[in-house]
Amino acid sequence: MKKIEDFIANADFLPPAFQLLPRLLLLLEDVDANADALADLIRVDPGLTADVLRVCNSATYALAYRAENIQQAILRIGFSEVHRIMMQVIMSPALKNPQSTYSTPQPDLWNHSLAAAVASQSIANPAEINTDLAFTAALLHDIGKVVLAHAVPQETAAAITQAQEKNQPRYLAERAILKTDHAAVGAKLLERWGFPRNISAAVRFHHEPAAAKEEVRMASCVCLANVLAYRMEDPVVVPEYVLYPDAKALQELGFTQPSLEVLVHEARVQFANAQKSFL
Fold first, then answer.
1. Model pLDDT for residues 117-150, shown as the tens digit of each residue
2. Global pTM?
3. Fold for the domain defined by 2-14+87-276
4. Own/partner pairs, 191-194, CB within 8 angstroms, 24+ separation
5. How far apart are CA 135 and CA 234, in angstroms?
């Protein structure tokens, strides 16, 4: 645990633009926020500006004229859509190939995180949850795996091996070996970076949403988005919680297992569109 805590305290592996996210989330919660405020936030990072414009001008959006600045991009595709693009651009370097020294084959963390973020939209909208904040929480739900991969790579590899050999959820194997899990570690990192509680709590409790108390709805949304992400990916072996989604999370948001299953196709199409933005 000390290695993990030390790493969080000195974490510098995340891209510089990650520091913008707490301010971005405050803008999203401000009903009076406008395009200029968002543009001013993005402009402080030249690389982020270039990446956001690149994605906005991709074939995915099929704009009649290329956006030449952030304000044009926001006006053409909307505040919320630029937020989603910005989140994807910021987080992709952190979630792609977080550690290459594992002895055990790793899932594609970036694609899984993006799939969960996209799936969260289909869940949040009918549940009347803020879709932008749900997207953010779902995109970040496994960020603790990045911390563990860098801070304690050998122990993390052992947890992954145990989970596979015993066919148990990875977070339970992490608890057995590390006395913590990626959800708790990820939440601690987000708390250190000043993220709102609704985001950090959703990350911390995405495997046990009922424990999130006042943030149970957002945690339930991320929990079910994680399930949909696995369903969209069609892996050969899935955790038991994917086969039997958390009953309390379903009830909290007004879903049943069959009604959640209906969302898989919709989320898969949206995920494919999101992926095209980065080709």
1. 899 999 999 999 988 889 889 988 998 998 898 8
2. 0.77
3. Hypothetical protein af1432 (1.10.3210)
4. 192/8, 192/9, 192/11, 193/18, 193/19, 193/21, 193/22, 194/22
5. 21
109 pLDDT above the threshold of 90: no
> How far is residue 203's CA from residue 160's CA, in Å, rounded to a whole number?
20
Q: b/e string for 123-135 if b means 16 or more Cβ within 10 A?
A: bbeebebebbbbb
Q: At residue 48, what are phi and psi to the nearest 5 degrees? A: -65, -40
**How many C-beta neighbours within 10 Å does residue 240 have?**
9
Domain residue ranges in the chain: 2-14+87-276
Q: At what angle do helices 109-127 and 143-151 cross, to 10 degrees?
A: 150
CA distance 173 to 158: 9
| Overall size of the chain counted in residues | 279
